[in-house]
Specification:
This protein is of the alpha+beta class. The protein is built from 4 helices and 5 strands; from the N terminus they run E-H-E-E-H-E-E-H-H. The chain has a 5-stranded antiparallel beta sheet, with no helix packed on it. The model has no long low-confidence stretch (mean pLDDT about 95).
Length: about 150
């Protein structure tokens, strides 16, 4: 299954833990969406990212091939969030080459608005830089830091 990873799952340490058999296929973005922090994470002690529709914006990430076993592991989120807090949905992303690709991703069931913690943003940014995602992606994540 082709899966679109964004946010904390971009961190290579976390990606390896949650989808050990993944094979990265390339960079892509989810058009007309943005990041919002609509779930609380006890692990991060702050907001957990998801995507939400937002015309004209985009969320960068990577596409990876994952096994059925990886998909099951991804759904457990290491038992860090309640069952069904995130659901797998199909979305159409745009690859770096400009091709449309139908993939699966996780989207949260919102429960409120929460602020992300610095260490969470550091973790995500490490992944963004690891995959050499565009500067606009780095800037977006940096914009969530307190001023």
């Amino acid at each position: 299954m082709k899966f679109f990873f964004y946010a904390d799952n971009l961190n290579p340490t976390q990606l390896k833990r949650r989808a050990p058999e993944h094979k990265v296929l390339g960079k892509a973005y989810l058009p007309d969406h943005t990041i919002h922090f609509c779930r609380w994470s006890s692990q991060w002690r702050g907001g957990l990212a998801s995507v939400t529709p937002s015309p004209g914006e985009r969320v960068w990430g990577i596409i990876a091939d994952v096994t059925d076993e990886d998909a099951k592991l991804l759904d457990t989120f290491e038992e860090e969030v309640p069952p069904n807090a995130f659901r797998q949905v199909q979305v159409t992303v745009m690859t770096e080459q400009g091709d449309k690709e139908l993939v699966t991703t996780h989207i949260a069931t919102p429960i409120g608005k929460f602020k992300p913690k610095e260490h969470y943003l550091d973790w995500v940014t490490k992944g963004v830089k690891h995959w050499k995602l565009p500067d606009e992606c780095v800037a977006m994540w940096e914009s969530f830091r307190p001023k």
